[in-house]
Amino acid sequence: MINNDDHALVMLAGHIGSDLIQRGLMLTSAESCTGGWLGQVITAKAGSSAWYERGFITYSVASKHEMLGVSTTTLKQYGTVSEQTVKEMVAGALTHSRAQVSVAISGVAGPDGSTEGKPVGMVCFAWKMKDGLARSATHHFDGDRESVRRQAVSVALQGVIDLVHDAPPILT
Fold first, then answer.
1. Positive/negative CA dihedral, 35, 41, 42, 47
2. How many domains does the chain have?
């Protein structure tokens, strides 16, 4: 259920929807540490079925491989929280959907789960369009588990907006 704290996130989702509808595009998402929160925010916006194709919640290592095709080599070499992994997640979400735009999130929300070089609050993102335009980033957030996850959803949404705005116009 969306609360008042998430109203700004739903508003961001609305901007994404307008941009995607205008371009005739659909979005898919691949989430790990946010556990579906991104999909929840998107679908809280009435009419999102016109531009949100599907979401993948791939919380376990196996699900990233089985559902999105993330290679076992990548997972072993870089771990689940890495830009290499989210790049494969975002590509896999496009491959296994009918969408043209994708976003992926994987991170350490805490309070446990940190490892050497991957502290609580570290979240990796990737965004990709079927035409090849792609980005990735790693952020380090402060706060408790809920705060880290909320910030991750916000960055993921803003990244979709930025990617779509930077994409070349669609010629009709």
1. positive
2. 1
